[in-house]
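Please fill in the sequence for the structure shown.

STRUCTURE ENCODING:
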């Protein structure tokens, strides 16, 4: 095995969570959609997301305390790139990305119909880290496409073809395949 030593971009070595689109509401009711890949599960019901402070997503979360998290799969991969663009604040990415909204049950921002899994979330707390803020949210409701429920009730990311950004900012994504059980 030949390994390269690096001191930058270290967390990219453990990048293995599907890309998400975070949906929030602007005060004028514009439905905002932003793409995020730098996040992690911090408890059974809480997720921490590194969100750029200038983003509309961050400002809307701070104003309203509510968001939805929507998993991106291969059939809607282009939506990840479109929702990653910096559109004017009063322009929704949803239509441009050819997505549709459905009402959430517990929060005001809608969920994305075409996503195989959606979470309804509320703001808990944040830690500022330079350009980003690490925003911790509590998930209070979820929606998952029945065909893609894994044995443990979670999302079968392989079957659902959930996409992972493996070259950001280049638009290069991958899906997982060939899961295997380790025998000891
Ligand atoms: C695949 C992908 C992953 C991204 N991940 C993040 C991320 O984790 N954190 C972040 O601040 N921006 C991330 N971005 C950039 C945001 O999507 C971008 O700043 C977007 O304009 C935010 O939208 P908003 O201003 O409507 O909130 C990502 C973009 C792409 C395409």
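FILLED IN BY: designer on duty
SEQUENCE:
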């Amino acid at each position: 095995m030949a390994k390269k030593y690096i001191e930058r971009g270290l967390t990219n070595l453990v990048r293995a969570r599907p890309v998400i689109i975070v949906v929030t509401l602007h005060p004028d009711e514009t439905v905002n959609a932003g793409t995020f890949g730098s996040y992690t599960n911090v408890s059974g019901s809480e997720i921490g997301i590194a969100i750029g402070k200038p983003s509309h997503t961050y400002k809307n979360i701070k104003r309203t305390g509510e968001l939805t998290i929507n998993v991106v799969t291969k059939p809607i991969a282009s939506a990840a790139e479109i929702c990653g663009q910096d559109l004017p604040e009063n322009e929704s990415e949803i239509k441009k990305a050819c997505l549709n909204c459905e009402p959430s049950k517990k929060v005001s921002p809608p969920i994305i119909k075409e996503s195989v899994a959606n979470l309804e979330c509320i703001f808990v707390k944040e830690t500022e880290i330079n350009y980003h803020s690490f925003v911790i949210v509590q998930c209070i409701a979820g929606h998952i496409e029945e065909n893609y429920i894994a044995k443990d009730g979670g999302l079968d990311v392989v079957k659902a073809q959930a996409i992972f950004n493996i070259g950001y900012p280049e638009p290069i994504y991958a899906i997982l395949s060939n899961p295997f059980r380790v025998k000891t």
